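User: These chains co-purify. Model them together.
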Amino acid sequence: MATLGSTDAVGADPIPKRRVHGMLKLYYGLNEEGKPEEKGDPLDPCDIDGAHFEPEVYLNKLRKECTLAELMDQETNMVKHIRSLDSDMQTLVYENYNKFISATDTIRKMKNDFKKMEDEMDCLAANMTAITEFSARISSTLQDQHQQITKLSGVHMLLRKLQFLFELPARLNKCIELEAYVQAVSYYGKARSVLHQYQHMPSFQGIQNDCQSIMAQLAQRLREKFQDGGSSAKDLSECVELLLKLDEPAEELCDKFLSHAKSRLEEDLAGLEADLGVSNVALGTSSDILEFIDRGCNDFVGNLCLLIASYQDLFVNRLQDGALASKNIPQMANAKLLAFVNNLVDRYFSLVECRIQAEKGVGDNSLLVRALDRFHRRLQALSKLLPGSNVPSKGTEIVVRAARERIRQYLAALQSFYMDSLTDVRQSLAAQRLSGKDSANLAELLSTLSASILNQIKSVLAYVHLFTAKDINFSNKPYFKGEFCSQGVREGLIVGFIKYICQSSRQFCESSGDKGGSTPPALLLLLSRLCLDYETSTISYILTLTDEQFLGQDQTPVTPVTALCSEAREAAQKLLNHYVKVQGLIISQMLRKSVETRDWINTIEPRNVRAVMKRVVEDTTSIDVQVGLLFEEGVRKAHSSDSSKRTFSVYSSSRQQARYAPSYTPSAPMDTNLLSNIQKLFSERIDIFSPVEFNKVSVLTGIIKISLKTFLECVRLRTFGRYGLQQIQVDCYYLQLYLWRFVSDENLVHFLLDEIVGSSAHRCLDPSPMEQSVIEVICERG
Amino acid sequence: MKKNARALTAQIAETDAIRFLVGTQSLKYDNQIHIIDFDDENNIINKNVLLHEAGEIWHISASPVDKSVFTTCYNKNYLLTLVSFFLASDSKVVTCAAVWRMPKELESGSHESPDDSSSNPQTLELLCHLDNTAHGNMACVLWEPMSDGKKLISLADNYLLLWDLKESTTKAVISSSTTLEGKGQLKFTSGRWSPHHNCTQIATANDTAIRGWDIRSMSQIYCIENAHGQLVRDLDFNPNKQYYLASCGDDCKVKFWDIRNINEPVKSLEEHSHWVWSVRYNHSHDQLVLTGSSDSRIILSNMVSISSEPFGHIVDEDELSDQEDNHQDEKIKEPLQDSIIATYEEHEDSVYAVEWSSADPWLFASLSYDGRLVINRVPRALKYRILL
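Assistant: Joint model of the two components:
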């Protein structure tokens, strides 16, 4: 139709074409929806396409409205429309006719086909009935034969089983010959129940007996193999498995298995022991501790782990599933294993501990720590395998013990280092004395000493710190977090060392008192200063350092810094007191010898100051220098040298005159006593061996006090002639001249010297003192 | 006293009165023996003076039997020395020893007025002279403590001499002697007769060593070398514990020894600030130890831990009867600790001698160089504590 349309409406617009369809559609009452009528009102009677078209109205309208030309156009247009409509109609009719014809053809064809099919179906039905008939006939004929065949096949199976049973002994023998034990056991397992069931029949009983004897043989063989030392763990476990299948008693097997494993583990232990023995004999050449622990871990602990695993596999896990689980065998097996493991591990631990104890060298701690770490790790693996045992706790204990031991060793090392460095100092002091430059660099010695001690402490701390390093497995155990830090390192090591310093210093004071000053005084002085330094700064520094490095979470009380400081101060005080005592003793010994050995009655008139006095002044000066190197000057009562000298001379001479007066006039003894008593009233009591302060003046005052008091006591034990007294006068004046500058209160010196001269005057047979001027001359000349 | 003095002893034979003997030491004046009586009830000190013309007295010791007899070690009189000085150019001051007897009327603790006796001092009767020309200076003379007063030990330089007094103490004969041998000049400084072992042992001090002697064989039985850092000044035996010995010396220490173990002292005190010149155990309460020092202090210590007194004190009946015990109330006392009971600082000069009274165990005297004699009592509180 479309082709027709296109041929008809050549040169026409597409709109008219559509209009054609539209019009046709309209005709057939198919109104196009959604496309509103273009031409206004459908009821318009003038609409030529409308349903209500009235030609009359339309014509009238046309005639009224249009011109002639337009009418002409209208007319041609109309004619055109009519023609196209006509052609359209024709095409449509043609098409429909065509379709109708073809439909009619199809129907006729179908009619023919159906007829054919009906015939074939009839034929099929007939065939089917024939087939059914045949098959029924066949099955009825075959029924008997089928039953026979089933029966026959059942007999065949039975026969094969019987054959297996009859052949079983032979087969088993063959298996044993071929050492295919697994096969044999599986065969036997299959047959066992059957045999058991039919054992009342004699033939079967024979077979059963045969089998049992063979299996007994097999079990025997297995046992032999099991007990054979050379077989490997895997073989062993296989054996055990088989034996278990053969209903061997599990307990016995456990024991045997363990005893067998024990022999092998003991070989390992023996190896370790031998190693240990070697290392004890020749420490230098033996393997170091890391190697030892490594070996122990690899051999012993590895085997042990393997053993535990296979054991558990065999006895515990498997049996839990089996029927034997009800007999408490897993529990029993576990208990046995635990006892066994504990026993062996105890021995191993004792070996390890021996080895650790043999590790005495202080130098390299890292090896030990690493060895301990490895040890600990392996034990943890062990504990995973065997949750119930106390092995890991014991192992940790060993580690803890080793750490403690280590700390103790470090403390000992520190102490010996301290003593060594003291010996060094002592030697260098001695060397100095030999070379003549006495006490030249005490300060230097002090600084090197304290620096080396501090360095040593630091290095030891670093070593110990390895124990708590992050990558070490046991460092996060509670012991290492808490107690090790605070109790072990801080208290045990550092505080212990500081206390040791103080204590050894005190020992210097006490011991040397009896042996007559075996410690050089300079060392005492040095140590005193060292302790004082510790009190002021070093202790708190070291402790802060320690606390920083070992952040212990332990709450146990620790020794406070102040207590240590006060202890150090006490030690310093004691040392200094002792120094004063020793030096005072040296000088007073000199003075005493000089007084005691001289015959004071028959001496000659003094010409000189005695050499002893010069020596005393020299020694005092050198002590002054020595102390000055280490201690501060200190305060003394203010006075200028000139004035003190002058006033003293006047004062003393006048006093001495007054005191000697009674010797010329024996009738006035009261005056002497009165004078001396009044004098004593005003002077304070003197503590001779009183504690000194930490400064030079105080130290020297102490020394001079001791010396002069000795002088006084010695003089009182002697009897003097005239010149003896005069000699004492000269000596005392000389001492006055030189000693005042060392002491804090010169009146003290004056008082003591006055006492000496006074006492010697009392002890004098012929007390006629020397002229002050003469004394001065002698002293200045000397 | 107005003279210097060093020598002090209790009159041991006297058990009723508290009496001390003091010997003065003066070169220029006549030396005296002062007999000091202390009246306990009235707190009065009586003094009788005897002239000791022989010379200055360095050591005095009273006979344990006869209360009028005592010995002195003295330097020869000043005048005599001067004479010898002019006569012989090499003369020396020699210390001699002699046994003396007091005049009869003073024996029983005279009741004369003190000013009378001091204005008219009486002379001593010389019983015998211990001849020491061969042995050098006498350091001290010791009576045998428990016997009949016939035996004396004297220490002279390096000789240890045992004397027998014969013919009613008018003659002294050296019965045996021994010498201390060694390097250098060894000199005995002091000695003490042990009251134990039937009085067969004495201990002596020389320089820094303490030696024990058996006087039967006159041989050394023990020696504590370096007992003190410096000179040992004095010794005393514990009256109740036979092996215990106290010593003191120039190192300011007082040490207590067990002579069975001489390697180290049982205890060591260091309380004085100068030489300790004298140490004495109390005769009946051996925890009380008295020390005198040239720092002019006397220290009374309570050495409970090494005394014969048990800590849980057993009350001594005799002592109780001596003292009127008005402290009947039961006090629970804590055990006494080793401690200093008291420090006495009355002296202004060095104290060279201290001595317990022989009559009253709670009383002691001390003598300083300036001649001051001080008598003190053990503090009352402590006394009752020890007794009750």
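Chain B has a mean pLDDT of 72.
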